Amino acid sequence: MKILVRSILLILIICIPVFSQSEEAVVKAKIISSVDKFKSGNSYPLAVEITIREPYHINAEIPSEDFLIPTSLNLEAPEGVAIGKLEYPKPLVKKFDFSEKALAVYEETVHIFTSISISDEFSEPEMVFTGQLGYQACDHHTCLAPDEIAVSGTFLMAAGGESPASINQKVFATIPGAISEAETEVTQTESGLAATIMERGWFLTFFLVFLGGLALNLTPCVYPLIPITISYFGGQSEGKKGGLLFHAFIYVFGMAITYSILGVIAALTGSLFGAALQNPVVLVGIAIILVGLALSMFDLYEIRIPAFLSNFAGGAKKGLFGTFFMGLTVGIVAAPCIGPFVLALLTFVGERGDVILGFWMFFVLALGLGVPFIFLALFSGSIHKIPRSGAWMIWVRNIFGFILIAMAVYFLQPLFPSVLSYFLTLTFTMLIGGIYMAWLEPTEAPGKTFGIIRNLVGIVFFIISIFFV
What we know:
Strand 7 (about 90-95) and strand 8 (about 105) form a beta hairpin. By secondary structure, the chain is an alpha+beta fold. It contains 16 helices and 12 strands. The chain has a 4-stranded antiparallel beta sheet with strand order 1-3-9-6, with no helix packed on it.
């Protein structure tokens, strides 16, 4: 008998924490207002506050995987009250044990924002909202079954000349953009290219930036400078290979300093820039600028820098300082060709607002630009073997034109009616780019090599379009 009693007590001791834990809901939701009372004929922000118990999270509105259950909210208002568009919170992108890729999730406390418009005829003493929140909660290892909870809120109407008072100011100060202070410390929206960075890792991102730097060497503003610059290094080092290589490193170091400073400045202004990106007018303006820069890459017109800047940057100076100065200012000389791509990258870094990212992204870009100089300095006897400048460089510029158009689409993402339309637009941009670069672009060059490269670039564009699909 004693053994039986002890067994029952032991089972109860073990189960009590489990039962008490199960009594606490994994997800809670409530409707909160920006004012203590509503007034007929006015509009007000409204929010649904979702509290998620640790260590659980719920999937974002748009999950990272098709099989995951999205977080969804359905709100209903009384007659005479219109509910605006739901603005879901910015998700965190995190890696969990049960998934091979990072997932977009919500944790702790988040808010879904909307607005209400009350008609002049609404005369009820109070306003009642009802709705349902659908979600799937998971911890770091497993997921619970999909669930749905009711949300509701009752709010008083102001009488006569009574004026509503502001409440929950800390919550509603985060709109537009729907990012709470706690979330801002952790992460910002990870979409498009930013989400790819988080999911695929920094190595791929920096590798692509490095390749972009290498490709910029093939533009008409940079490529003709390579043999001239290497010859200048040879003159300064009196033909000694060690000195030639050292000058090349100093030159690349100067480039790296210039571009890294640009990246840091862009990141430091990121908070201001990020707030501006909530404005559709700003997004459209950025897209127009990027398309305008793209058209210059298609040779519809030419962007020129002032002559005094070009003369200042291109002026020859002796010694290591002269080499270092040339590296610092080569971006000015080559601005008509590399400027559009650099500006697009600056815009992206400014949106991210990450100083470390800004520094290293532009440092890697400078390395990509500088590698040919170091390589040719190391094998100075091979400089006569590099292909001569020609019309093929115009073809290279066109590649960057399509990249800039794709970046314009990227910045317009919040304005697309759906994720599907956004990715289809990117798909068609890359598809048209591949067809044009491989078969329609009129540039010709002697030999078979150029034709092979054209087709390879077209294939790469097609692969990218399939990736977007």
